[in-house]
Amino acid sequence: xxxxxxxxxxxxxxxxxxxxxxxxxxxxxxxxxxxxxxxxxxxxxxxxxxxxxxxxxxxxxxxxxxxxxxxxxxxxxxxxxxxxxxxxxxxxxxxxxxxxxxxxxxxxxxxxxxxxxxxxxxxxxxxxxxxxxxxxxxxxxxxxxxxxxxxxxxxxxxxxxxxxxxxxxxxxxxxxxxxxxxxxxxxxxxxxxxxxxxxxxxxxxxxxxxxxxxxxxxxxxxxxxxxxxxxxxxxxxxxxxxxxxxxxxxxxxxxxxxxxxxxxxxxxxxxxxxxxxxxxxxxxxxxxxxxxxxxxxxxxxxxxxxxxxxxxxxxxxxxxxxxxxxxxxxxxxxxxxxxxxxxxxxxxxxxxxxxxxxxxxxxxxxxxxxxxxxxxxxxxxxxxxxxxxxxxxxxxxxxxxxxxxxxxxxxxxx
Length: 414
Hints:
Strand content: 25-35%
Number of domains: 2
Shape: globular
Number of strands: 14
Order of helices and strands: HEEHEHEEHHEHHHEEEHEEEEHHHHEH
Structural class: alpha/beta
Radius of gyration: 26 Å
Helix content: 25-40%
Number of helices: 14
Largest sheet: 9 strands, mixed
């Protein structure tokens, strides 16, 4: 009986310890948070940059341990992303791991290379790499961007990039861009994919609209080495072919019936005073309604209806839009017209310049066909540039700020 008991205990120990044979201590691994990819020089296929974070940094600050940095940035040539981990161990003592990697950054020059997609598919092979890894395109070499971006208020890169990119996506200044969506859209080959766009280079925009800018074009001072994240890098079938501004990215989101952006603050021309603009929080009452008709083998007709709720926050002209219904209606119609004009301009840009669209309309078109081969035979990509697109915006004006009424200028100047 005792012998049987010992055998049972021994077998239980084997079962309980079976999952721990390959366990590795945290302090024996180097955790890569961000992976940067650039074109290689001369005979080197690519150049890889790692931001390796120090998991003990927070506890060191509280416990008074060794004065180690929060992160380390290294750059080296490599054949691919998978073997790059072993190559990095020539200069990094600990085992490289992608377990907590959340960002892959690529330079604009590399993203425009025809062979760029070959290296991107390396990211699907390593089981450590998550499919929700965020894709960021940088105007300059990504190695320069990751090394020289030194935010003042947040010394931990994983927290900085997490907060900066999440906030940018909440305001829709930059798009949602993860690897899963990148590969899905790339493999269908029908739509444009929008990726986050960032840079450290400063090139102030000459556009008349203060909202119509890309990363690097916002004129700002007071913070040195601070990155800007705004606008989109446009991909077609895995290759970058252009960019969109922050305003165009927002409009693309409103035109997409699979997305429901909330909380973006936009500015519009005040119809009662040419000098001033009004700002309001724009949200969708419901996703855009896309009606699409296919006529034999001709280009499609696309009707898009966008119901918006806008809460006006600023009123520099001090026109009484709250009590005077006729003036409120003028403001409503003015905003609808302005948005429709901008959206039509964006649609024409996608038709003429990119020959494809980022609005997800091909998904609606697929439903018009019984089978995928029928849809492929229709050749949506060839038909889209000649599509007839009609856009209507319906604005419902909400509250005019916390204090809806403002005094007249005559009353203030008495």
